[in-house]
Automatic annotation (TrEMBL):
It holds the Pfam family AAA_16. InterPro entries: AAA_16, Cro/C1-type_HTH, Lambda_DNA-bd_dom_sf, P-loop_NTPase, TPR-like_helical_dom_sf. It comes from Promicromonospora iranensis. SMART domains: HTH_XRE. It comes from the Bacteria. PANTHER family: HTH-TYPE TRANSCRIPTIONAL REGULATOR RV0890C-RELATED (PTHR47691:SF3), REGULATOR-RELATED (PTHR47691). Residues 11-67 form the HTH cro/C1-type domain. This is Transcriptional regulator with XRE-family HTH domain/tetratricopeptide (TPR) repeat protein. The lineage of its organism: Bacteria, Bacillati, Actinomycetota, Actinomycetes, Micrococcales.
Length: 756
């Protein structure tokens, strides 16, 4: 009978069949020639799984052949449970260790002898390649008490057969004088001996690469003065009474410092290391691999290497050095996943930025899965270090892990169709924009906010909708841009319309001009003049708020009037003339009053209450601009009475109008030398604006009240309002309106100081 081929013989046969030399396969796979030779000759009879995985890719094996080779590799690495295979040779302390000062200080503080004499075990968890073992070793070596001997065991947590608890304790006993006399027959026997030997002399134990809590618990029976450090990709949440450290990527300055220690100065220029660190996602393993590859080839420059790995397709393939590979490190964790969790992992790779919650993750899936079930799967990914948990039940996928999750190799292995990724993006985009429309509906007079839309979620109230819009902006704004690019014009126009009234509450967002420009283009693509006029009007407002360009605003308002006239829609004729009146007034041109009265007429024909109220308020502004403050006050009060008589709390849009009218009345009352009434009107404006989270309106109303206080000689009260109006303005100064507002406060502050 012919003996079966060894793993090395199989790889050699596959290499020759592919007509590859050792050097050619090394170039393709990133595995060194020496390592490949050792595998083929049987010197390395059970190579690491990442090495076999890299060779399979270099040989361009199909899914079936690749899995066959990996199964053979796992089988040769597996050993009987009673065997002695635990590694007791601790990894060396790296000379170029960088950063982690806060984490190391925290770890070493845990080991300071407490009053009760008990040293709590420390669990260090995190993403593959994040530096758990090197950080643990560094912390242990920095301990002031170096009298305790260091015991080390690699628990082989990512192998097909991790060490059993009895193997772990036995491996530790072999490192303690007198502890290895006789092989423990049972776990109880091993634990009794372990307690006895550690009672005589405290030790420091490093348990590396743990798979489960059951491997750890017997070790924790040691004497209370001993110290135990555990590293694992898993959180090991079942362990009680332990201190926990979760490692994330290095900080940018730490990443640059690490790369500078590895890459010679003549192989880098200013900015190269920061760029390379970003492309490596600040993951120590990735940066070490990149740095070593550059340093090993004097002719290679850091900037050139960064250029080669900039594309998503090449980054994981290039981050390989010998038998170290970022992709292989992630693969070991990925292969531990249940099929449903693995599907979710590949699916969330289309979530491109920021943090996300279980609802967003669920939206990427083809089949309907409950949010609760998705949360459980996300927690499992977090437990394996493939996902980072953030506060508020949110999660974050690091860039390199995202590339791995969305890699063609994973998709091919799982049998995902080539179109699957785009289908996931489409589902997510439609869910986000459907949710955005439902959220915006809470602020739109003509939309019902109750009941789910065609996609997305329903919101319980306006506050919840407001919070979601602001929190998920980094998801829905790219989705909006992608929808416009994909030609989903009806969706873009509808969602932008839903956001119109909310934009007043979040005027400092800074992207309304872009958003409404997309809506204008979509309306034109649809050939819908009514929609075009509507979104041109919104664009007038956004342009004035964000750029203070009144001439451009006037140009857009005139285009809106033309489109509205072609549509013959009374409501849009009203709004187009409203914006035209406003822009004519801002540009000090005639015709503003005529346009405003035309707007009132058209709003009346359309039965648009909010429009008519806005136009009446604008009549007050026009009167105030001519110095007729009593007439302005009369117009404001008339508009206010209309709103009050029409159930002012029926929509937030109406509430917004009430707030606006109040601060305008305050300004008119000051001009009429009635400051006490002005303060009362401003008080009401501030209260309503705060209720609807209208930060810009709060600031404007505070300024109005400060002006009223100044007219009464109340310098301190005025300064308090002005300082409050300035709070946080620098953080939201992306708009021209904010700049102009800040400038308007300076002379008022000077006047307040003089009175104070």
């Amino acid at each position: 009978m012919n003996r079966p081929q060894t793993l090395g013989e199989q790889i050699r046969q596959l290499r020759l069949a592919a007509d590859l030399t050792l050097e050619a396969l090394a170039e393709r796979s990133g595995v060194s020639v020496r390592t490949i030779g050792d595998v083929e000759r049987g010197v390395s009879a059970a190579p690491h799984r990442r090495t076999v995985d890299a060779l399979a890719r270099g040989l361009q094996l199909g899914p079936a052949d690749r899995q066959k080779l990996l199964r053979e590799s796992r089988a040769r690495r597996a050993v009987p449970a009673q065997g002695s295979r635990a590694s007791a040779v601790a990894p060396h302390r790296v000379w170029d260790f960088t950063g982690r000062e806060r984490e190391i200080a925290e770890i070493t503080s845990f080991f300071s002898p407490p009053a009760e004499g008990h040293v709590a075990p420390v669990v260090i968890s995190g993403l593959a390649g994040i530096g758990k073992t090197t950080t643990a070793l560094e912390a242990i070596h920095r301990l002031e008490d170096s009298s305790r001997p260091l015991l080390f065991v690699d628990l082989d947590g990512l192998s097909p057969s991790p060490l059993t608890p009895v193997q772990v304790v036995s491996a530790l006993l072999r490192q303690v004088p007198g502890g290895s006399e006789g092989v423990p027959r049972t776990l109880d026997d091993a634990v009794l001996r372990w307690r006895a030997v550690t009672a005589e002399k405290p030790v420091t134990v490093l348990l590396d690469n743990a798979d489960s809590e059951r491997q750890i618990r017997p070790v924790l029976t040691l004497h209370t003065n001993s110290a135990v450090v555990i590293t694992s990709r898993r959180a090991l949440a079942g362990l009680e009474g332990v201190r926990r450290i979760t490692l994330g990527p290095l900080r940018p300055e730490e990443s640059v410092e690490l790369l500078a220690k590895i890459i010679p100065p003549d192989q880098r220029a200013a900015g190269d290391l920061r760029d390379l660190a970003e492309l490596s996602s600040h993951v120590p393993l990735a940066m070490r691999i990149a740095g070593n590859r550059i340093a090993s080839k004097p002719a290679v420059h850091a900037g050139d290497f960064s250029a080669r790995i900039r594309s998503a397709e090449s980054r994981l393939r290039m981050l390989v050095a010998g038998d170290l590979a970022v992709e292989a490190a992630f693969t070991l964790s990925y292969e531990d996943l249940e099929p449903s969790v693995a599907t979710l992992f590949r699916s969330i790779s289309v979530i491109d930025a920021g943090t996300f919650d279980a609802r967003i993750a669920a939206a990427t899936l083809e089949s309907t899965v409950s949010v609760g079930e998705v949360e459980g799967r996300l927690d499992e990914l977090t437990d394996l270090g493939l996902l980072e948990a953030r506060g508020g039940n949110r999660y974050h996928l690091h860039d390199l892990v995202r590339l791995f999750a969305g890699s063609p190799r994973l998709a091919a292995d799982a049998g995902d169709a080539a179109e699957q990724t785009e289908a996931r993006r489409d589902r997510l985009r439609r869910w986000l924009l459907g949710s955005l429309e439902r959220a915006g509906a809470w602020f739109e007079p003509d939309r019902s906010p109750t009941g789910p839309g065609p996609a997305g979620v329903d919101f319980a109230d306006a506050g919840t909708a407001d919070a979601w819009i602001r929190l998920e902006e980094h998801h829905w704004w790219p989705a909006m841009q992608a929808a416009a690019k994909a030609g989903e014009h009806a969706l873009v126009a509808d969602v932008a319309d839903a956001m119109h009234w909310f934009s007043e509450l979040w005027a400092n967002w800074g992207h309304w001009t872009e958003l409404f420009s997309l809506a204008v283009e979509s309306s034109r693509a649809l050939g819908d003049k009514r929609l075009e006029a509507m979104h041109l009007g919104y664009l007038v407002w956004a342009t004035v708020v964000e750029t203070r360009d009144h001439q451009e605003g006037l140009r857009l308002a005139r285009l809106a009037v033309v489109a509205a006239e072609e549509s013959e829609d009374h409501q849009q004729l009203g709004w187009a003339n409203f914006y035209l009146s406003w822009m004519l007034s801002e540009n000090k041109l005639d015709g503003g009053l005529v346009a405003c009265r035309t707007a009132l007429l058209q709003f009346g024909l359309a039965g648009d209450r909010e429009g008519a109220t806005s136009a009446s308020s604008l009549l007050g502004d026009l009167a105030r601009a001519t110095g007729d403050h009593q007439r302005a006050l009369d117009e404001y009060r008339a508009a206010y009475d209309v709103v009050q008589a029409s159930a002012p709390n029926s929509t937030l849009a109406t509430t917004l109008l009430v707030s606006t009218l109040h601060y305008r009345m305050s300004e008119a009352l000051v001009a009429l030398d009635r400051p006490v009434e002005a303060i009362s009107a401003a008080d009401r404006a501030i209260a309503v604006a705060e209720e609807v989270r209208g930060l810009t309106l709060v600031r404007i109303s505070l300024r109005a009240r400060a002006i009223a206080h100044l007219s009464l000689g109340h310098g301190q009260q005025a300064r308090a309002d002005l300082e409050r109006a300035l709070e946080g303005l620098d953080a939201t100064s992306r708009t021209g309106m904010n700049t102009a507002f800040r400038d308007s406060l300076i002379p008022l502050l000077e006047e307040a100081d003089k009175l104070a």
